[in-house]
User: What shape does this take?
Amino acid sequence: MKKWNFIFGAALIFFAALQLFTPAHTNPPVKNDFITATKPAGAITDSLRAACYDCHSHETVWPFYARIAPVSWLVASDVNEGREHLNFSDWPTEADQAAKKLDRINEVLDYGEMPPKKYTLIHADARLSEAQRKEIMDWTTTFAQKLHAGPPSQ
Ligand code: HEC
Assistant: This one.
């Protein structure tokens, strides 16, 4: 039995030591918010906020378990990588760039790649129905087409 006490004690110390290496969870200032800039319908706004904003914006709601290593590393790496690829808090003001991002959003929704399964497993409100996905895709398609076409000529 002594042996098990020792093993359990060592594991506890190891787990406690891990907590010293919890990565920073930052929410930097919002530069150009996607929803404010593009004004989608209310239902689309709700879907994007519930299903995408935790990983693709500076308005991440960090859950309590995001403070506990080793989960904290996984969550932080998802958010950092997510923001790097697509940041709704730093939406491009350039029409061409914005249109490309909209195309990509459309693609990942079409393939059902986003939001990731590991995320919707825990966040039930982030699960998009077929209708919600289609609603966002219809909107991004029309919007991207307008941007690709450029400003109306005089
Ligand atoms: C759990 C975090 C998380 C959530 C929630 C999430 N994403 Fe992502 N997303 C990522 C990560 C990480 C990447 C980069 C790696 C990859 O492509 O898997 C990514 C990549 C992307 C890309 C590719 C960008 C590019 O062109 O390189 C798009 C577009 C995207 N996500 C859109 C969305 C949309 C739209 C939603 C909501 C419906 C969403 N994501 C929800 C984490 C997330």
Remarks:
- The pocket of heme C is lined by residues 51-52, 54-56, 78, 81-82, 85-86, 104-105, 108-109, 114-116, 119 (CB under 6 Å).
- The chain has one domain: 23-149.
- The first helix runs from residue 2 to 18.
